[in-house]
Amino acid sequence: MKSLERRAYFDHLTGLANRGHFFEQCENTLSKARTEKTSLAVLMMDVDHFKGVNDAYGHKTGDLVLQKLAEMSLSTLRKDDIIARIGGEEFAVLLPATDQDEAIRVAQRLRARIEEGGVLSIDGHKISFTVSLGVSYCKHDDCSTVNELLNAADDALYQAKAAGRNCVFSQ
Ligand SMILES: Nc1nc2c(ncn2[C@@H]2O[C@H](COP(=O)(O)OP(=O)(O)OP(=O)(O)O)[C@@H](O)[C@H]2O)c(=O)[nH]1
C-alpha cells in the first residue's frame, strides 16, 4: 500500500485504523449482520485521566502511552475484531458476530490486561495507565444505524467514567 493510501485509512501514531476507515468497516459489518442474521458489538475505550499524563510528563510521553495501549489492545483482541483510534485518546473496537455477553467479556479482558500491563518506565518514572470502556450491541433485526450503535457505546463509556473509571459499562 502506498503511503498516501495508508494515511487515508490508518492513524499515523498507532498504525491502527482511523476514524473514517472504522466507520466504513462498521457499515460493511452491519450490512453483513443483516444478511447473515448475526449480531455485532462495539466497544468505546478511553484512557483515564490522560490529560494528567500529558501535564505531568509531556505530550511525547502521552503519545508513547497511546502507542503502548494500541499494541496491547491488538495483542489482546481476536483476529476478526477491528480496533481504531477514532479521536485523541479514544479508541473503538468493532466485534463482528458477537453477542452482548461475549462483548462484555472482551471488554473486561482488555480492561484487565491494560490495568496489569499498562506501565511505561521513562526517565526513572513509572507511568501507569488504565482505561474505561463502554459496550453496545445489536442483533441483525434491531440495529438501526452505525451512529446509533456508536452513540450507545459512548453513553456506556460516559457511565463508566462517572462510576470511577477503570471499569466496563454496557448499554
Ligand atoms: N499526547 C497526546 N495527547 C493527546 C492527543 N490527542 C489528545 N490528547 C490529549 O488528551 C487529553 C484528553 O483529556 P480529557 O478529555 O480532559 O480527558 P482525561 O484527562 O483523559 O479524563 P477522563 O477521560 O475524564 O478520564 C487532553 O489533554 C488532550 O490534549 C495525542 O495525540 N497525543
From TrEMBL:
<protein>
    <recommendedName>
        <fullName>diguanylate cyclase</fullName>
        <ecNumber>2.7.7.65</ecNumber>
    </recommendedName>
</protein>
<dbReference type="InterPro" id="IPR029787">
    <property type="entry name" value="Nucleotide_cyclase"/>
</dbReference>
<dbReference type="InterPro" id="IPR000160">
    <property type="entry name" value="GGDEF_dom"/>
</dbReference>
<dbReference type="InterPro" id="IPR050469">
    <property type="entry name" value="Diguanylate_Cyclase"/>
</dbReference>
<dbReference type="InterPro" id="IPR043128">
    <property type="entry name" value="Rev_trsase/Diguanyl_cyclase"/>
</dbReference>
<feature type="domain" description="GGDEF">
    <location>
        <begin position="38"/>
        <end position="171"/>
    </location>
</feature>
<dbReference type="Pfam" id="PF00990">
    <property type="entry name" value="GGDEF"/>
</dbReference>
